[in-house]
Specification:
Mean pLDDT: 88
Structural class: mainly alpha
Number of strands: 3
Low-confidence stretches: 1-14
Number of domains: 1
Shape: globular
Order of helices and strands: HHEEEHHHHHH
Oligomer: single chain
Strand order of the largest sheet: 1-3-2
Number of helices: 8
Length: 164
């Protein structure tokens, strides 16, 4: 990993402040990416995770990230959630309680699957995908190993996939 990936990218001054226009841009991006005109992007609570709600068709973004991360990194995260909206169908295959119980494993498998799909479908988004994965995996590598062997195993799968 290069030195640039070790630093958390920061937003440039041109788009600081009110994030309404940026959320509208992300909404357009996810609708195009998922081919779903019904998707909505909403700012969640500060510190919340980026996520997609299959039932509501809502992608939740962390408002702290919108104010701190590079715009292309946020675009990549939004496209990642749009890919879940486009190709993840776990909610059609499993009951909600099964999904909740298996979510850590299912999310690892789905994240790898959708990112392979994203790179094939949106080759121009490769720098966005690299940006958020380099930041995410860089942060993970600086943390002490998880106590849970299951978490260590899942993290190992993701790191092996990303770093080879």
């Amino acid at each position: 990993m290069d030195a640039a990936a070790d630093a958390r990218p920061t937003r440039d001054v041109a788009i600081e402040g009110d994030t309404t226009a940026f959320i509208e841009e992300l909404t357009g991006l996810v609708r195009l990416g998922a081919r779903r005109g019904d998707l909505v992007v909403r700012a969640g609570e500060p510190g919340s995770a980026w996520s997609f709600d299959w039932v509501a068709g809502v992608i939740t973004v962390d408002p702290d990230d919108l104010g701190a991360l590079a715009p292309d990194l946020c675009r990549g995260l939004a496209l990642h959630e749009a890919a879940h909206a486009a190709v993840t169908v776990l909610h059609e295959l499993l009951r909600r309680d099964e999904i909740e119980r298996l979510m850590p494993l299912l999310n690892v498998v789905e994240d790898i699957r959708i990112e392979v799909w994203m790179r094939a479908r949106f080759p121009g988004a490769a720098p966005w995908i690299r940006a958020y994965n380099d930041v995410f995996y860089g942060l993970c590598r600086r943390q002490p190993p998880a106590r849970s062997r299951q978490v260590q195993f899942l993290r190992g799968i993701l790191e092996l996939w990303w770093y080879g």
